[in-house]
Design brief:
The complex is a heterodimer of chains A (190) and B (188).
Chain A (H helix, E strand, L loop, with lengths): L11 H8 L3 H23 L2 H17 L10 H19 L22 H13 L2 H11 L5 H7 L4 H28 L5
Chain B lengths: L1 H15 L17 H40 L13 H5 L9 H24 L5 H23 L4 H30 L2
The chains are: A mainly alpha (190), B mainly alpha (188).
């Protein structure tokens, strides 16, 4: 199974220092998890400024409440929950945001080059989905959330998550296959 | 055996993420977000420090005034008086250094008794004005904040003292509402 990008271990000493409120430890944690946090926010919001804002808000909340983290599960899971909750509430605060706008693609420098072409298509297709569909498909397929967890996150049922997921995947498949079919029909494929 | 296992893992992966969204690369934020986060954390800890020192310096005076007022004037709370000798001294954080076990225990007991008293008073309390409700909610928020800190430092006499002081503020609020309500009825 592919891992969630959040799955980065954190050492106990840094965590203990952050719990005491040491800023240098907080910065270490921020630097470690900033990228996956921003990525999940961006994949759902599709807006760089909003995603940056959501990421910062989420880290501020996480550091203020870090004493509530009991340590019985990995830290990254707890932090991811905070980030996802902030992202979903940002979407709720801005219900009429245009979410079909195509966004410029910013790939990280260490992205595998052989996936670049496909990634461009997938990324663009994902951007055309509605925000809730995007959130459901991303949280389920990439972050490994269960339908129950997604339902709870949106204050809805498991069936809501299943329906949304199936619809989102169907739409993505259509979008990904469409250019190929057009090329086949025009006899461009070699 | 290993090939079979790999193929099962692959199958599960395809079922979980059939479109391979997990292969999309991580993204870099447009700017470094740490300065904003750092500034917010510094501001928060500064506010917390000010709140603590203010609460500590006011605690002694507030406790004495409140306890005297409550025990003398509120019929419900007169029951507390014989059970809590030296209440004012115990509730004051300055008078109860951290790690002083008997002081912590009596503060915990006092806090529990106040919770019981509050439940009784609440059931008899009249409807509150909007400003009192706002104040009540603020007090309850502060109690929740102290509770959060107590979950980390359960034996801190200072925190228990703060909790008791906040709980003492709540009956005062109800008492004022009762007084206002009595005045209103008398004027009819």
């Amino acid at each position: 199974m592919s891992q969630s990008p959040f799955e980065i271990e954190l050492d106990d000493i840094t965590l203990a220092r952050a719990r005491k409120g040491e800023l240098s430890a907080c910065e270490t944690i921020f630097r470690k998890y900033q990228r996956p946090s921003y990525s999940v926010a961006y994949r759902i919001c599709q807006c760089p400024e909003l995603s940056q804002e959501v990421t910062q808000e989420a880290f501020i909340t996480a550091f203020r409440r870090i004493r509530q983290f009991r340590g019985d599960a990995p830290f990254w899971g707890w932090l991811r929950k905070v980030v996802v909750n902030h992202t979903i509430s940002a979407l709720r605060r801005l219900p009429n945001r245009p979410d079909t706008e195509f966004q410029e693609y910013h790939a990280g420098t260490d992205a595998p080059q052989e996936h670049m072409g496909l990634a461009m298509d997938l990324s663009a297709a994902l951007a055309t989905l509605g925000a809730e569909d995007r959130a459901v498909v991303w949280l389920h397929d990439v972050e490994g959330y269960s339908h129950q967890e997604i339902g709870e996150l949106f204050g809805k049922t498991e069936s809501y998550s299943k329906t949304r997921l199936s619809r989102a995947r169907g739409k993505l498949r259509e979008l990904l296959e469409a250019p190929f079919q057009r090329e086949s029909a025009g006899g461009v494929v070699v | 055996m290993k090939i079979e296992l790999n193929s099962k893992v692959h199958q599960m992966q395809v079922e979980r993420d059939p479109l391979n969204l997990g292969n999309l690369p991580s993204l870099d934020p447009p700017a470094d977000g740490w300065p904003v986060v750092e500034a917010a954390l510094i501001e928060h800890s500064e506010k917390k420090r000010i709140w603590r020192s203010t609460a500590a310096s006011l605690a002694l005076v507030a406790t004495i005034v409140l306890v005297m007022g409550l025990t003398l004037r509120h019929p419900r709370l007169t029951e507390l008086a014989p059970e809590t000798p030296g209440l004012a001294q115990q509730a004051a954080p300055d008078a109860a250094p951290a790690g002083d076990e008997p002081a912590v225990e009596s503060l915990i007991a006092l806090s529990q008794r106040l919770e019981v008293q509050l439940r009784r008073i609440r059931s008899d309390a009249p409807l509150m004005s909007a400003s009192s409700v706002v104040y009540q909610v603020e007090l309850q928020d502060l109690v929740a904040q102290v509770d959060e800190e107590l979950s980390v430092e359960p034996d801190s006499a200072e925190l228990w003292g703060q909790r008791v002081n906040l709980l003492l503020d709540l009956p005062r609020l109800y008492r004022n509402e009762l007084r206002r309500e009595s005045a209103r009825i008398a004027s009819l």
